[in-house]
Amino acid sequence: MTGSGKLSAALMGICISVFLFMCSDITVSAGGNYLDTQNGGVATVLNPGTRDTAEIISEKAAELNLTIPEEEEVSSLVMANVKDALNVRSDASEDADKVGKLYKDCGGVILERKDGWTRLQSGNVIGWASDEYLLFDEEAEALANDVGRMIATVDTETLRVRTAPDGEAGILGLLPKGEILEVVDDSDGEWICIDYEGEDGYVSAEYVILDFQIDAGETLEEIKAREEAELEAKRHVNYGQYTTDADTTKLLAALVQCEAGAECYEGKVAVAAVVMNRVRSSAYPDSIHGVIYASGQFTPALNGKVNALYESGNISESCLQAAQEAIDGTSNVGSATHFRRNNGRDGIVIGNHVFY
Fold first, then answer.
1. 31 CB-contact burial (10 Å; exposed 0-12 / middle 13-18 / buried 19+)
2. Helix spans in the chain (H)
3. What is the pLDDT of residues 274-324, one digit of tens each?
4. Residue 134: beta bridge partners?
5. Cβ-based neighbours of 252, under 8 Å, separated by 6 or more
6. Beta pairing class for 218-219 and 107-114
7. pLDDT of residue 51
8. Which of 136, 178, 189, 228 has the lowest tally of Cβ within 10 angstroms?
9. Checking phi first, is residue 42 left (phi over 0); if not, alpha (psi -120 to 50) or beta?
């Protein structure tokens, strides 16, 4: 992702959207394939520039009986400022009932502010949170730029991925309509640089829809459903070595192959270690399945490639070995919980990725 320019474009989407898209409900049946319950968690997907801003703000304000001050139209982003989780309550009081949680790196839209509290919407969670645990304005934008990501969805029947931002450049491959891609750079108005199988590819901006994603919170009902699904799948963490089953190891290996299949072995271990660092952190779901599918943080999980690879079984031995090594407690990236294509930011650089 490229710096503040990308978020500036995405923030217009925040201003004109007071709802965050939800993933499908989690359902579990005994003996079933737990991958049927994919996409646990929620993601903020913002689609800027699709309609007249003033019109949509007016519509949403009317629906919620809100008056949105003009100055808030460019600063409606709010981010959680916590190490673990933040309770969202039904009213602006510590004594009010809990309605959900925001986790580390979660963001949302400001609906109202009063007396040191903010009413916000994040995913399906609507409620009040203390300003003491929130970031606003430039601080919120900086964090969102750091932990969010821009994705592109193909909006034509077949899209050519080219080797350079030129209509006459060579073709790396073809993508079908609906394919979801990770954006490396969108500063060129005509071409979007994407991550195509581990290397830079270029697609015409005319044929993709850009969305900026930030983690979103969970309602109490969603938390309960996720925990029940994870319990049913019998995944549990044991600090140090993580006790798991062959299917879960295979799932982690599938993610590693999707994210780092073309990287060196150390790069594969590093990706698996990021997942395990999240599993062991109280700021994220405590299962491999929960981490991989939470909030659309891993693009291959979001676009179905992890599922397809898992079901095909065509996973390399090196990815399986890297997954097992991380499960056994190895981390060559310390406590890093994020990674992305190396764009010059601070962190541990291994191959084409930077870990932080």
1. exposed
2. 3-15, 53-63, 137-147, 220-232, 246-260, 265-279, 288-293, 299-302, 305-312, 317-327
3. 999 999 888 888 889 888 987 657 888 888 889 889 989 899 999 999 999
4. 80
5. 272, 275, 288, 292, 323, 326, 327
6. unpaired
7. 43
8. 189
9. beta
189: which 2 tokens? 């108005």
In angstroms, rounded to a whole number, what is the distance separating the alpha carbons of residues 205 and 193? 9
Q: Give the SS3 label for residue 298.
A: coil
How far CA 261 is from CA of 85, 308, 327, in Å, comes to 33, 15, 18
The torsion region of residue 38 among left (phi > 0), alpha (psi -120 to 50) and beta comes to beta
**pLDDT given at position 295:** 65
In single-letter form, the type of residue at position 216 comes to: A
- Measured in whole angstroms, the distance separating CA 150 from the mean position of its chain's CA atoms is 9
Residue 131 to residues 3, 93, 292, Cα–Cα distance (Å): 26, 12, 30
